[in-house]
Description:
The chain is an alpha+beta fold. It contains 15 helices and 6 strands. The chain has helices at residues 7-24, 36-46, 51-64, 68-73, 76-83, 90-105, 114-118, 125-136, 145-154, 164-177, 183-196, 215-219, 261-264, 279-291, 346-361; strands at residues 235-245, 254-255, 268-269, 272-274, 298-308, 311-321. Strands 4-1-6-5 form a 4-stranded mixed beta sheet. A two-stranded antiparallel sheet has the order 2-3. A hairpin with a 2-residue loop joins strand 5 (298-308) and strand 6 (311-321). It is elongated. Bound molecules: iron/sulfur cluster (SF4).
Amino acid sequence: MAGKLTGAGIAAFRRKLLAWYRGAKRDLPWRRTRDPYRIWLAEIMLQQTRVAAVIPHYARFLDRFPAVEVLARSPVEDVLRLWSGLGYYSRARNLHRAAQEIVARHAGQFPSELSAALALPGIGRYTAAAILSITYGEPHAVLDGNVARVLARLDAIRGDLRAPARWRGLEARAQEILARRAPGDWNQAMMELGAMVCLPKTPRCDACPVRLWCRAAALGIAGELPAARAKPKPVRVTLAAAVLVDPRHRTLLLQSNAREAALFSRLWQFPAVEADGDPRTALALHLQNKFGLRAADCVPAGDSRHSVTFRQIRLAAFVVRVKRLPRIAGARTPKLAELHRLPISNAARKIAEQALRMLSQRPHS
Ligand code: SF4
């Protein structure tokens, strides 16, 4: 049976995993470069987003912002617009701020020191280790959920991996087995193994290049590890949103406030209110209080579903025709058909699509 990986075993394990990675790795755009800017961008986009979704965004983003200097001097609104569809917009804001710091303090070069990298907005331990190992060959091991799962199975570790003491143990273990001569390839090999072979629910142990060293596989408990974490219960929310439309087909967009930021990612959004009861009544009251608009003018445009972390949101859209849009300091009044030119969240996009569909079917309602 496989014992704990030590000494000569670690050396053989490294050789086997690196050889497998170099032969089996997926051909991904960010694996064809060592340019720190491109690696950094990929690592940020890949946080909480699937590879297939990142690929087209990555290409478009680099077309528009081919170098860190271009990104740094561009308006944040352009960055957010290009980020549209990827979600978690704080990543884009931090990327933009970090680009400005890199240009101002590091002569346009992503810093190679861990402490300097960690001081940049949006760069945590995992991201810094990934960028520095891949671009500069610095010996920092990555640890994320994927790598933690692989390590937990290799060593047959039970219990909640995110418990602080256990996580620190995994960090130390990841650093111990790191192939210091090829840290970039090593980190990517561990991530690739977790993404392609050592899968969360059904590990493919029969196809695994390092099965020989895996205690969980030897014990027949690979599928039971790691222990499932207790998930927060989903919270159901109904959001009633008003798409105001004036005779020139312009609409009103507001900046989301702190409470709405969880739903609209601090991007432009339609006037909206959370509804405990009937969404139309709640919205009518909101519009009356806020803009002095009459309740009878809310025409339902249909519902759509949206989810943000543990929130399951019903988006109830209403079209409200007005002679004149309310004047609100800091608001935007774009044409409804041209919203794609502004950074809006996926939730706002769904609301706009519902309204446009309704207006095309009932142009005079
Ligand atoms: Fe994961 Fe199975 Fe490979 Fe062990 S043998 S590392 S459980 S895929």
